[in-house]
Amino acid sequence: MLFGLTLPQILGILGVPSVASVIGWVAKKIKDHHKKVEEAQEKHDKEIKVLKLGMQAMLRAQMISEYNKFHEDKGYAPIWAKDNFENIWSQYEALGENGVMNDIHDKFMALPTERPKRTENK
């Protein structure tokens, strides 16, 4: 009861067209709000994708740098370097679409953990 009136009495006072107009207005507001939420979600999804691609690029660059430093320059990777590389790899792999780095990962992890002994030729 509103103001001591029952629903049929309120409808009688307002008239059915007025109630239909209010229902139509509310439905439009809900539809407009739903559209805004969908647009915001699409924008958010695009931003997340860009952030993921950027993070993946940074992690890839770091792994390539580490690979070059230890594989190409030193010929070995201490345990701490392998742990660090594996941590970076795990985060990179979690971002998906990572086939590019599989070979570098495998080669890095296969490096010896100690500096190779030098042999002297006399």
Give an overview of the whole structure.
With 122 residues, the chain is mostly helical. It has one domain (16-109). The chain is 75% helix and 0% strand. The chain has helices at residues 7-14, 16-74, 79-94, 102-109. The model has no long low-confidence stretch (mean pLDDT 88).
Sequence-ordered SSE layout with sheet pairings:
Elements: H1 7-14, H2 16-74, H3 79-94, H4 102-109
Helix pairs in contact: 2-3, 2-4
Tags for this model:
0% strand; mainly alpha; 122 residues
Number of domains: 1
Low-confidence segments, given as residue ranges, are none
**Helix segment tally:** 4
Distance between the first and last residues' Cα? 108 Å
Rg from Cα: 32 Å
Mean pLDDT score: 88
Order of helices and strands: HHHH
Q: Got a strand count?
A: 0
Q: Residue share in helices?
A: over 70%
User: What is the oligomeric state here?
Assistant: single chain
Q: What does the overall shape look like?
A: rod-shaped
Q: What proportion of the residues form beta strands (DSSP E)?
A: under 5%
What is the structural class?
Answer: mainly alpha
Q: Main sheet, how many strands, which sense, barrel?
A: none
